[in-house]
Amino acid sequence: MVRQKIAREIAADVLVVGGGGAAARAALSAKQAGADVRLAVKAEWQKSGSTATAFSELLSIAAAIGHGDERDHPEIHYEDTMKSGEGFIDPELVWGLAHEMPERIFSLIELGLNFDKQPNGKLVQGMSDFAVYPRTCRVNGVTARHILTVLAKRLKELEVPVDEHMMIFELLTHGGGKVAGALGWDRLAREIVLYRVPAVILACGGAHGIYKHGVGTPEMTGDGYAMAHKLGLPLVNMEFVQIGPASLFPSVTLLSGPVWKTNPILTNGSGRDIFHGVLPDGITAERVYQEKVFPFSVSNESFYLDTSIQRESEANPAPGGGVWYEKRPGTDDLIEATMPKTKRVLKSKGIDLDEDKFEVGLISQCNNGGVQILNMDGETAVAGLYAAGETAGGLRGPDRPGGNSLAEGQVFGHTSGTAAARYSRRQRGATSVKEQALAKLDGYNTWLANCAAGSGSAAEAASSLRDMMHRNCLVIRSEQRLAEAWSFLTQLEEALLDGDLGVAGEDDFAAAIELHHMIITAKAIVMSARERKESRSCHYREDFPEKNDREWKKSIRVKNVNGRMATEFYHWPSPRRTVRR
Asked: Residue limits of the Fumarate reductase/succinate dehydrogenase flavoprotein-like C-terminal domain (predicted)?
């Protein structure tokens, strides 16, 4: 194994880790605030991650601007969000989100984003789950991608450097627990890069890539969660993972709520209806479909759809491991009215909805948990370290209103970018980080030497991890499933850290680090899910099927305590705002 060394050094004021909407907004706002900014993107810029690849019939961004209904205003947005997550989210962050979001919408318009408009020139705004009034703004069904495009264009005009295929894998700190820099792995040049920066913004998305199937792209392996955890920062609400149905092949296409209103036919590998013998008296498949929204929830009868897909995928799967989907005869007009975009996207991937039967399974879509942020600036407990977008925790609990995810990225991308630029100005002339970087690399090189005689591969182990999470931590959870997952993960981590896995080449080095990030993130999810002995929204324990507000209306935080992962209960402050109607 080649001994790793620092091949290049890059100095900047602010390093933004990630390539989606939150990261791009953070980089732009930091640049506009006068900072020298670098953007480190793990894969290809504008073609990877959630923002660049997101799609659904209802994909949109929420802002209470009153164009859909003049009665809507930020206080109502705040109240709707609190109703969906009170007891699991920070009221002050939610208040700031709701009140900052209208300005973010108009900022995107100034950048050139052409939201869908009404004949009177106002924006089209749609209804979403948990909303009292229509609040979501959209751009032709691919809102997220259009947001990223206009932000990227402006970053290019301002000549903000984008380091593509750069995996940031270690955050560096100096005296007093302040950020001093980061280590990155250039995946093309196969070399270590040292970033000398006083401020880092983690906006690198979630961890869809730790499941067998997920939206986005596979490099989303929880790097932000893992790096923050290693620094001792709490991860909150990690058990709440949004999971739901999608077509599986040739690539994942999310099947959102409107798709199910067409009452499709779902069968297992033997051709039997997946609801056979499952639905209670008085509950029909049509009713299940009518109730369905994305993601999975125990809150209504759509519960039977996702759980039946998982059970049949385990007991009697179609050849690819899912269940069969085909349109119901006589629904052509309904399909055109409710899911035209999905039909076109499936067609572009080689699936003809009018003729073909195709496989559907459950996929990971969004992590509602994340690195706990302390305030509207996206600050963490480590000075100079910020988090935004899906990496940040505190705004999403078991549920969240539709459109809030993109909104969070724009609001906290902006506030964290501005705050990081302001902070970095006070840190210029700080001590060198080279010594800390070399010490970290010495630790990695010692580990690499121990791996010389190992067998197996990190890539194979990562594939096994994804299979295990799909099997044991999908929508159906239980003590037996989660205990099996925990045992697997702890044994795999021990094997990795003890050098039992072979790490022989440059690519193996990067894959092994990524695998460790996957393990840390998966352990945080499994430990939290195992701790929460109730069922609530997207978290279903078949051994504890009832919601229990008396004992469980509280968050779980995962912390690094002397090198060991532990949980603690966390109670958010009570809302102090009075909402005016």
From this structure: 464-558
